[in-house]
Description:
With 590 residues, the chain is α+β, with helices and mostly antiparallel strands.
Amino acid sequence: MSVQSDAHxxxxxxxxxxxxxxxxxxxxxxxxxxxxxxxxxxxxxxALTSELIAxxxxxxxxxxxxxxxxxxRSAPNDVARVEHLTFVCTNDPVDAGPNNHWxxxxxxxxxxDALFAGCMRGRTLYVIPYCxxxxxxxxxxxxxxxxxxxxxxxxxxxMTRMGTPALERIRREGHFVRGLHSIGQLDPEQRxxxxxxxxxxxxxxxxxxxxxxxxxxxxxxxxxASWQARDEGWLAEHMLLVALDSPTGETHYVAAxxxxxxxxxxxxxxxxxxxxxxxxxxxxxxDIAWLHPGKDGRLWAINPESGYFGVAPGTSxxxxxxxxxxxxxxxxxxxxxxTAENEPWWEGMPAGTPVKDxxxxxxxxxxxxxxxxxxxxTVSARQNPNYAHEAEAAGGVPISxxxxxxxxxxxxxxVFEARNWRHGVLxxxxxxxxxxxxxxGAVGVLRRDPMAMKPFAGYNFGDxxxxxxxxxxxxxxxxxxxxxxxxxxxxxxxxxxxxxxENLRVLKWITERVNNRGAARETPIxxxxxxxxxxxxxxxxPPETLEELLKVDVNAWREELTSLETELSQYxxxxxxxxxxxxxxxxxxx
Length: 590
Ligand code: OXD
Ligand code: MN
């Protein structure tokens, strides 16, 4: 099955292989001993959990302090996304682009089918029908994941609208994204995450880790959906979504893209500081947004997910009180440490003492952190005390501002505003960030992560930027685009900005700019607040620190954009001329 645009740009849907024929084909390939069609019911969740407890694969946590919550430990070599083993398999390698690892679809299918052959013998094959987005939303898209992991089923039930209603929609619509997953032997030598965007399908083998195994999330809702979105005229992005209610009763919806483990969940669940009374931040989503141009010329967004797969370490009443409260029931914890009271524990926890580390070993600081740095909680978004009811709106919410950001100890100021949509696309393309534990590999290395989509864009970034630029014409009332950096450090490595709740001060300026009220100065990199334009009441920051946070180092920016120019040149003929022009103009302004 594939979707292509006809001469008029309208999506053309090829007839998919029928669901039942595909299940039959997978059954003969993988040879499971049972097939279980997931309904998404409470009883099913409870039964699967009991099975996993009986098999020793899951530990119930303290029933008084963490009711209905469980701990899972993964294989120690299977704790993060594996970007070097993740492929986009298009007929023409240029369509995958230099930003992706590529394999020819026929080779990839052959390789994967050899791994899948007989891999479910003695195991149950679970068929998981799911819907990404509100079940009645025309902006939502469905998929089926076949897996041999009950852990995946339990997580997919929290993270997606999973079960019978999704299956009914799939049967009605006749098309869906096909995902085939097996944990295999959890052997890193036999681990691959393959995407076939032209067929709207995914094959993932050898990993049980969320980003590799919960196929609705990164594989479908970002890599495959970004391709689908290009064909159909929308955007699938690595963005949180929030509703910002101001003291005057206005609501602004804001989308923000940050690389993995850069605080998206914390920003999405921000609790306003006492010094800014009357503000409320409500969460629509913490990781992925699907953005569609509306008939009114605005950009409308849904969160395709229904739960959070959040980074546990650092989650505390101080960093994110709502998250800390929300994960005290009905939560799945993966690779956290354990206290003597059978409570989950991670670095940054205000109390408790770990007695067992994330691998279940007796706690010994010589073995490193107690919780794995990429240990996670999975929890329903509805448990968030500030869950925005708009997350269920079939038509989504209209976006006023898009924010890009990265983790950069130097250069990027606290906030700046792009001059217009086209300049905003350049700002997004220039996002760079220090790597984190969310993916295997070195941590703390600065890398370019355009639109925070480096690991997730399912096609050539050159084509992706062209698609982004096309929204200049598709939208008569586009969101304003901003760039923020919460992570600036001084020479001693101390953070210059307190972050967390205090980030609301920057969001407040952003909403003022959206309302054409906020003051700003024009700088060579865009519009920036003067120190006096930010609401700093009740926050004690030395004036010279604030000045440093709002400074533009012209020479360093010239170097930055020159290096961006070199990086963009690898996209050759696929790089849109308009982006190159935008970059040349930005360089001239410096
Ligand atoms: C995530 C990630 O899990 O970006 O959201 O890695
Ligand atoms: Mn993410």
